[in-house]
Write a structure and sequence with these properties.
14 helices, binds zinc ion, single chain, about 400 residues, nine-stranded antiparallel sheet, Thermophilic metalloprotease-like, alpha+beta, five-stranded antiparallel sheet
Length: about 400
């Protein structure tokens, strides 16, 4: 086996063993681009070798998606197939692990009818609401990771040939996922331990408020709810099996209080939302809600996103990522949130992870709301980190502690 294929095989193994941490008798559901069929076969090989009961693949294809947007009538986008959502729920009930390969041309839908895109985003969010309960509450193991596809690689590296772009994107992904370390599985264990130290420190401090300031104009105050929990690295599912939901992952995150965000925040990286780019945007918050916004690119897309429902105008995630993280240092804009969010401090508009508050997974909608947990059909990360971002935490007894200094951890 040559070096590339050897690394590829190890990468498939890492996703199965560390990402999902597949258990004997467990089904594995894979969401993958047709272009990645060879890689998916490697995933299946390792999954079956580790005792998976079944590997089921839901394929997607950019060209087919584009054709659908060009030809199918509006009603198709307004009605997400129930059988598809039911199928995912059935697998979830059976304890399946869910591996999603995120690899999309960031400009895939740039010429598609925005109304169809908005309708599709809404219909799929609604239909998959029950299924998302399993992953967003960590009941089942899930993992989002990436492989390059040709169109995506060409967007990231437009100045080189397609072959060269593919090579470069593989290289960037392997670097970001620590695949060049001698023992990637061990390198991941060490990395997860480091993240856990940050998580423990922040949970101990139990900050009441965070203050963000950056020279680009960001000046934001964020209240953290009573009982909030910082998390990062991996987590345990309902069966007490440790899994890693994002590969790569560099973030340590919690939830804000849904009514406790005030001030202005500027985006620092382009955001790929459902095949469309939103870039250079600014959000103004009052009592947790976006009351004003601007965008140099993708204004209409941002407008639709914020109008999706009441919770889409509020924050559901506060995530800290050092400016010197390996992904950030690579200085590549991936136009893929999985990578770009792990290169930068970020927030998410929309639903908060109930696991980020004490007892959240057992609370009903009313209790979550009372606790300040934001709810929405959507959850979209956007990047706000910069090299001079400072974050101060204020404890319950009014003590101020520097958390981030000039874009990096201050402790
Ligand atoms: Zn995040
Ligand atoms: Zn997020």
């Amino acid at each position: 086996m040559d070096k590339f294929n050897d690394t590829l095989d190890k990468y498939a193994n890492l996703c199965v063993k560390v990402g999902i941490n597949i258990q004997k008798g467990q089904p594995l559901v894979v969401n993958a681009p047709v272009e990645g069929a060879d890689f998916v076969r490697l995933v299946a090989k390792h999954a079956y070798a580790a005792g998976a009961k079944e590997v089921h693949v839901n394929w997607n294809d950019g060209d087919l998606t584009k054709m659908k947007y060009e030809n199918a009538p509006m009603e198709v986008f307004e009605n997400f197939p129930k059988w598809y959502a039911d199928g995912l729920e059935e697998y979830a009930e059976d304890g399946a692990g869910f591996l999603s390969i995120s690899a999309q041309d960031p400009q895939l839908l740039k010429d598609a009818d925005p109304k169809k895109i908005a309708a599709n985003n809404k219909a799929s969010s609604m239909a998959l609401k029950e299924f998302r309960r399993y992953t967003m509450n960590d009941l089942n193991a899930w993992c989002i990771m990436s492989i390059p596809t040709k169109d995506w690689a060409k967007r990231v590296f437009p100045d080189v040939s397609e072959d060269e772009a593919m090579k470069k994107l593989w290289d960037a992904i392997f670097k970001a996922t620590r695949m060049y370390e001698n023992n990637p599985v061990k390198a991941w264990k060490d990395h997860l331990t480091n993240l856990e130290e940050k998580v423990n420190y922040l949970n101990e401090k139990n900050f009441k408020k965070l203050y963000y300031k950056s020279s680009n104009g960001t000046d934001l105050e964020i209240e953290l709810p009573e009982g909030h929990i910082w998390a990062g690295g991996g987590g345990k599912n309902e069966k007490d099996v440790y899994f890693v939901a994002n590969m790569p992952t560099e973030e340590v995150f919690t939830m804000p209080h849904k009514t406790g965000v005030n001030g202005v925040v500027y985006s620092t990286k382009p955001l790929n939302y459902g095949g469309n780019l939103i870039d250079n945007f600014k959000l103004t918050f009052k009592d947790g809600k976006v009351v004003d916004f601007e965008a140099k690119k993708g204004y209409e897309v941002l407008k639709d996103l914020l109008a999706l429902d009441e919770g889409a105008k509020r924050l559901g995630e506060v995530a800290l990522v050092p400016y010197d993280s390996p992904i950030s240092k690579a200085n590549i804009v991936f136009y893929n949130t999985l990578f770009d969010e792990n290169a930068s401090c970020h927030f998410a508009l929309g639903k908060a992870y109930p696991t980020n508050i004490k007892g959240g997974a057992d609370m009903n909608e009313e209790q979550l709301d009372k606790a300040g947990v934001n709810d929405s059909l959507t959850h979209v990360d956007f990047m706000v980190g910069s090299k001079d971002l400072n974050i101060i935490g204020k404890t319950k007894d009014g003590k101020k502690v520097q958390i981030f200094k000039d874009g990096n951890w201050a402790f």
